[in-house]
Specification:
CATH topology of the largest domain: Cathepsin B, Chain A
Protein name: Cathepsin L
Organism: Hypsibius exemplaris (Freshwater tardigrade)
InterPro entries: Cystatin_sf (IPR046350), Papain-like_cys_pep_sf (IPR038765), Pept_asp_AS (IPR025661), Pept_cys_AS (IPR000169), Pept_his_AS (IPR025660), Peptidase_C1A (IPR013128), Peptidase_C1A_C (IPR000668), Peptidase_C1A_papain-like (IPR039417)
GO biological process, one term: proteolysis
Bound molecules: 2-acetamido-2-deoxy-beta-D-glucopyranose
Structural class: alpha+beta
Number of strands: 16
Family: Belongs to the peptidase C1 family.
Strand content: 15-25%
Largest sheet: 5 strands, antiparallel
């Protein structure tokens, strides 16, 4: 999918390399966040646009890396300001951050290629460089002074609490820009709209969606720049939505209200050595095909049915696809398409007297009048439990008992395309759970990074993520996935 585009390389005096491509000749392809091409430089000695200065700042940081004995390359995150000095030099105020790339002397401009270290050193620096001239395009770093700063400041927010970074970035339509980010062009947006069958009512709507697409790609770039696993982010079916709109239409875990309290389930008495290294309930006929909640905040219903389907299949030996619509219409503790909680849904299934199958009470993705008929119920549940927040114990319970309903922060899921997703806590606050999904298994990646992961069944159709599934890092409470683990009990 990530088609490498033809580009030529211009070597500047400093040994740096700029890829040149005429944006008019872009082939109709997915927008590629990993593509470092971001502008056309014709005369390296003329500094006109902000992008020219940003490139100058990247070269200055590159030269400063060459002088440093740090093990890791520092990367420009943002050029804060620039000024001419009295003797004709240029003073750049930059925010830079230690990356995961070794300080090997190679110039890298894209944060997607050198992701930042979560606990790396954050600096605000003043770099003074000679102005490039036609006779000498090579710039010289004349001086630098740096002070340590923190991640939030570098990423764009100074409000204090770590949670605010995630909240503000993922709820606004104006994400600050990050160095090396290639702003998608109208051409890219046309390809995106074509690919996902998007149609817009009028030019105004189209223009709005284009701006939203550009902003979302900036968020994807931020996720990529801070990715700790092997997650890949970019355009998805949600990339023209405002993050708040996305949450309303495609998630629906309602944590504003307190859910029904559940008693604690029993964690199997198991030696750690006896825990399988990988486990997948899909191989054991306990998981139905991936469903699609559509434009309705009913994730909580899908998370619940997924769990009950698994429990019924394991206890009764029959895999039955169950009705989310029954919960959307008949569950009085929850708000249908307006959101809900699995802990309430279990109680309501017991009150109603069971669940109809998908076939007898089909999903239409809108709030309707309840038409549940008890004689039509194909399954029942007797009770519900909460499971541990300890991921080892969650794995033990899962391997012995079945898929688990969980809550998660969906920030990274909105733009997830594959790999084992492992976002920083400040871009995926574990305390802001907004989406209900289902853990169906776990494993360890076979690539060099060997990331342990959970296999998470989502309800955004089979074309999202990895065939409808999310692979997310296992072991450090990524995106809060361990904080709301529950299950129905069938006696
Ligand atoms: C579980 O619930 C079903 C349906 O309500 C009921 O028939 C059954 O007796 C219950 N089992 C136990 C052990 O309570
Ligand atoms: C998590 O649970 C496992 C198994 O019960 C235990 O060995 C481990 O110490 C627990 N970890 C924490 C942080 O409590």
């Amino acid at each position: 999918m990530w088609l490498t585009l033809l580009a030529t390389c211009l070597v500047l005096g400093g040994g740096a390399c700029v890829l040149i491509r005429d944006p008019k000749n872009l082939p109709c392809d997915d927008y590629d966040l990993f593509d470092p091409v971001r502008r056309v430089i014709t005369e390296p000695w003329t500094l006109r646009t902000d992008a020219d200065y940003e490139y100058l700042a990247q070269q200055a940081v590159h030269q400063s890396n060459a002088r440093s004995n740090s093990l890791y390359k520092s990367m420009l995150v943002r050029l804060k300001s620039r000024a001419k000095t009295s003797d004709g030099d240029i003073r750049l105020t930059v925010l830079q951050l230690e990356s995961k790339c070794r300080n090997d002397g190679k110039f890298v401009s894209s944060l997607a290629h050198c992701p930042l270290r979560e606990n790396g050193l954050f600096h605000e620096c003043e770099l003074t460089v000679s102005a490039p001239t036609k006779a000498d395009a090579k710039i010289k770093l004349r001086g630098q002074s740096c002070v340590k700063t923190d991640a939030e400041l570098v990423l764009g927010y100074t409000s204090g609490l770590p949670s605010l970074v995630a909240t503000q970035l993922f709820q606004s339509s104006a994400t600050p820009s990050f160095a090396g980010f290639q702003v998608p062009l109208l051409e890219h947006f046309r390809c995106f709209a074509l690919r996902y069958g998007k149609t817009y009512d009028n030019d105004e709507e189209r223009a709005l969606r284009f701006r939203q697409f550009q902003n979302n790609m900036k968020l994807a770039y931020l996720l990529q720049a801070t990715e700790q696993g092997s997650g890949v982010y970019g355009p998805t079916q949600f990339s023209d939505l405002h993050p708040v709109e996305f949450r309303k239409l495609s998630t629906g875990l309602d944590t504003r209200r307190k859910g029904s309290p559940l008693k604690a389930g029993r964690i199997p008495d198991m030696d750690l050595e006896d825990l399988p290294v990988a486990f997948d309930w899909r191989d054991k006929n306990a998981v139905t095909p991936v469903k699609d909640q559509g434009q309705c905040g009913s994730c909580w219903a899908f998370s619940t049915t997924g769990n009950v389907e698994g429990q019924w299949a394991i206890k009764k030996g029959k895999l039955v696809s169950l009705s989310e619509q029954e919960l959307v219409d008949c569950d009085k503790l929850d708000q249908g398409c307006g959101g809900g909680l699995p802990s309430n849904a279990y109680k309501e299934i017991i009150r109603l007297g069971g669940m109809e199958s998908e076939g007898s009470y089909p999903y239409d993705g809108s709030d309707d009048k309840c038409s549940f008929q008890k004689p039509e119920a194909s399954v029942y549940i007797n009770d519900s439990i909460s499971i541990s927040t300890n991921e080892t114990e969650i794995a033990m319970w899962l391997a012995q008992n079945g898929p688990i309903s969980i809550g998660i922060n969906a920030n990274a899921m909105m733009l997830y395309m594959g790999g084992v997703s492992h976002p920083w806590k400040i871009v995926c606050n574990p305390k802001s759970l907004d989406h209900g999904v289902l853990i169906v298994g776990y494993g360890v990646a076979t690539d060099a990074k060997k990331n342990p992961y959970w296999i998470v069944k989502n309800s955004w159709g089979p074309h999202w993520g990895v065939k409808g599934y999310y692979l997310v890092y296992r072991g450090d409470g990524t995106c809060g996935l361990n904080l709301m683990c529950t299950s129905a009990v069938i006696a």
